[in-house]
Amino acid sequence: MSEKGCVILVGAGPGDPGLLTRKGLEALSQAEVVVYDHLVSREILELIPAEARRIDVGKTAGRHPIPQPEINRILLEEAQAGHRVVRLKGGDCFLFGRGGEELELLVQNGIPFQVVPGVTSALAVPAYGGIPVTHRDFCSSVHIITGHKRADGALSLDYEALVRLHGTLVFLMSVSSMGEICRGLIAAGMDENTPAAVIERGTTPAQRKVLAPLSGIEKEAAAAAVSPPAILVVGPVCSLSEELDWFDRLPLKGLRVLLTRDEGAQKRLVPVLEQLGAQVFSAPMIRTVFRDFDPEVLKEPGPVIFTSAAGVEAFQRVLWSQGLDARSLAGKTFAAVGKGTAAALEAMGIRADFIPRVYNGLEMARQMVEEGFLRPGDSPLLLRGNLASRELPKVLEEGGIPCREVVVYDTLPLTPEELPPEFDAAVFTCASCVRSLEKALPEGALTGKTALCIGPRTAEAAREAGMNIQMAEEASADSLITLVKGMTL
Ligand code: SAH
On the CB side of 458, how many CA atoms lie within 13 Å of its CA? Predict the structure, then answer.
């Protein structure tokens, strides 16, 4: 829809961000206003464009959820103001989602709208629990039922009819009415040994499953302190749940891994980690603020050394802002501290002349001289961040090669809003990331957590923070992927 002032109702799926449809993602990426409720997962909310306005209409902590007529009114007013509004709902937007009600007011006011169906929890959650909702050996229908009680506390279900169907029964919103439902089914003639399952927070790393016969499922679910969102599945197909279980058996199931946001190399880790069952958060670990510097420093002869990808980015920004580009660097030679930094240079069309085999200042200095990248009398330009280690320039200076150092960016502490959610393991590609995160979190917060590290300095910083170290063999994304694949819980 290209028009101004419209509403797109989007089903966000049951939780796993991979279950958002392509069409839903497309709508989200073009949204100017996003109205969402509490069942939409955090990972999906992170896909909302930074410039879009977010309206949370589902918050329950501390206040009542916004009443339905008010949600309808918000949608109408935002669209009338000319915005592209996305109304994000958990699961499918029309299945117990009041999607229909929200569209009525729009129709009355001539507001254009579209509907992007979503993957419903009623089908996807059993699938992630190893339960095929139909199976030729067991049943030929599946029924989706609400367990939500009316305001007067009544649950008006026709149990005889449900029992007669001999199909799989999926109850949504059924945590508080579970006992009543099970007793109702048994009283209407269903075998009390019929297999049943309760699945909480299905399709997410926090998924939990309880299996029991119909007569015992309420007690088992209560013993496990199951709370919403959860579904109750009743029917012989539940007997397949253990044999067909796959999600809970993924090797990294439940592991919450923190990655550094905006770190190109780490993006490739996301699908690998997710396929292994981990929950991946990407949050900033450091705040990088680029400095201006005088590009005149490039006029002086001498090789250029970068010790981080951020340094390369700072450098490129200054070049471009001065109307210069890679052509103004003709004849220069470049060293990059590792593959990530070299890749940042490559993105500018520059091939690094030197990348050390081992990544620490001492070794890098030694190899640069040994391999002829630096010669006595050179005056290399070292473009670095304010927190970069002083080891490299110190060693070079002692060897008679003084550097011209320019700080091209500053690494600042994270603001409270930037702090990551709870995590079990973090991937670090620089020592300053570790230190910055350590500083931003409460004291000792990193102790005992796992650090997946690139490079010995990073590992050292993580060890100092009390973390358990797993170290990639090489400083590359491929090597990190190999490390992650070999991880077990
Ligand atoms: N439109 C949604 C359902 C909204 S009603 C859909 O299609 O999925 C809310 C109920 O959905 C919850 O009470 C719970 O029963 C179920 N539900 C939603 N997400 C769930 C999840 N990840 N795991 C288990 N149940 C879920």
Answer: 22
- Pocket probe for ligand 1: among 21, 44, 231, 233, the residue whose CB has the most ligand atoms within 8 Å is 231
Give the model's confidence band at 215: pLDDT under 50 very low, under 70 low, under 90 confident, else very high.
very high
Q: How far is the CA of 14 from the centre of ligand 1 (A)?
A: 7
* Cis? peptide before 229, omega within 30° of 0: yes
Residue closest by Cα to atom 6 of ligand 1: 91
In the chain the first and final C-alpha atoms are separated, in Å, by 46
Give the chain's domains with CATH numbers.
6-119 (3.40.1010.10), 123-244 (3.30.950.10), 256-285+414-485 (3.40.50.10090), 288-412 (3.40.50.10090)
Q: How far is CA 221 from the centre of its chain?
A: 29
Within 8 A by CB and 6+ apart from 204, the residues are 14, 15, 16, 41, 279
pLDDT in tens, 257-305: 998 766 666 778 888 888 888 888 888 888 889 998 888 888 888 899 9
Considering the entire predicted model, what is its pTM?
Answer: 0.76
pLDDT tens per residue, range 394-430: 999 998 999 999 999 998 878 888 888 889 999 988 8
Report which protein residue has its CA nearest ligand 1's atom 18.
121
On the question of pLDDT at 248 being above 70, the answer is yes
Nearest atom (ligand 1) to Cα of 204 = 22
Catalytic residue chosen out of the listed positions 59, 267, 439, 485 = 59
Q: Can you state the percent helix, strand and coil of the chain, rounding each to 5?
A: 35, 20, 45
**Ligand 1 pocket, residue 144 CB under 6 Å:** no
